[in-house]
Amino acid sequence: MKKTELKEYLSGSVSELNKKYQELIDQLKKTNLDKSAGKSKDVNIESKLRKNIARIKTIIRQKELAKL
């Protein structure tokens, strides 16, 4: 995830972030299936996806706490 993408997520709404979160989860599941089938060539993509998911979840939580 690039810094420009991260800035976009910081300015986005929680619903947009939830959609992106679901997309990343689906992509991670697909990557796991590809990895188990031996189709995946990029071995680092799984860790990158997990880190991006954590970033999105952190931003969502920050926005939820800011509303309180």
UniProtKB/TrEMBL annotation:
Keyword Protein biosynthesis: no
Keyword Ribonucleoprotein applies: yes
An example Gene Ontology molecular-function term: structural constituent of ribosome
Cellular component terms per the entry's GO annotation: ribonucleoprotein complex; ribosome
Gene3D superfamilies noted in UniProt: 1.10.287.310
Domain of life: Bacteria
InterPro entries to which the protein is assigned, alphabetical: Ribosomal_uL29, Ribosomal_uL29_sf
Biological process (GO), any one: translation
Keywords, in A-Z order: Ribonucleoprotein, Ribosomal protein
NCBIfam families given in the database record: L29
Entry's family note: Belongs to the universal ribosomal protein uL29 family.
Protein name (database record): Large ribosomal subunit protein uL29
